[in-house]
Amino acid sequence: MMMMNNGEYKTAAGSTMSISGEHGGRSVVEFDWWEEGACPNCEPEPYADDDGFLVWNCDDCGGGRAELFAV
Prior knowledge:
This protein is mainly beta. It has one domain (about 5-70). Helices cover about 5% and strands about 40% of the residues. The chain has a 4-stranded antiparallel β-sheet, with no helix packed on it.
């Protein structure tokens, strides 16, 4: 898990991640599975990976990841 600064982040396809809290411990992910090219069974991780990417996991399609950019 990458420690990202509090703020709003977005992928190129439009999914968002909001980080807040005294130590960045609160995260809200709005995952647009259709725009990300994911299947409906994909589940996003609540925090970015070590490279600053939103990651989603899925037993059906294998999951995926997309880079997060500060908004």
